[in-house]
Amino acid sequence: EVLMQLALWDDKFSNNDLSNFQTFEKKVKTGKGDTVEVYKCSIESARLILSNIIKRTDAEHIIAYDSMLVKDILQGLEENSISINFSGDKKVANSADIGISEVEFAIAESGTLVEYSYSIWKRLVSAMPNVHIALVRANRIVKDFESAFEILKTHIFDASHISFITGPSITADIERVLTIGVHGPGKLIVIFIQENDNE
């Protein structure tokens, strides 16, 4: 439903603007080493990327927030020895290796993902597992916060919770040692899904 609402704001999204994608990638990766990966690809390629991530992390338990895009990418994975939960509680979320969710859009200038969280489960999926895989439709990227708030101001009352996600947390509070991923996932993988060749 949210994506249908956002369709009304297509003029606010910078469709097909490669520079915004490049800015997003640069900003979200800055200072975070290999804890952030960014891809822009088709659904088919995204499935291959996901399979590869599962293999290299030895993931056995995945949690996901139910959306058409998430279901498309997870197609066929259930046949393997991987358990996928589309609902649960903190205990289920805490035992997951990977969380997969679709976020509403991205902000280029800061490398930020914007997630509307109607349900507690959606927030658990993006915050509890060590690896968060965020799916974004490739045409859902805005240049800056000004454009983002133009969109948000009409939807702000529709969402009980809006999260701004800018990669794993970074802190130097502990004996001034730079530590990544103290709060929330230690790794963020952003996959921008191109639904046609013009994106």
3D structure, described in words:
With 199 residues, the protein is of the alpha/beta class. 32% of the residues lie in helices and 25% in strands. The strands form three sheets. A six-stranded parallel sheet has the order 1-12-7-4-2-3, with helices on both faces. A four-stranded mixed sheet has the order 8-5-6-9. A hairpin with a 7-residue loop joins strand 10 and strand 11 (179-180).
Descriptors:
4-stranded mixed beta sheet; 7 helices; 199 residues; alpha/beta; 6-stranded parallel beta sheet; 12 strands; globular
Produce a short descriptive summary.
The chain is α/β, with parallel strands linked by helices. The chain has helices at residues 2-7, 18-29, 43-57, 68-74, 90-94, 120-127, 145-155, and strands spanning 36-41, 61-64, 83-85, 98-102, 105-107, 112-116, 131-137, 141-142, 162-165, 170-171, 179-180, 187-193. The protein is 32% helix and 25% strand.
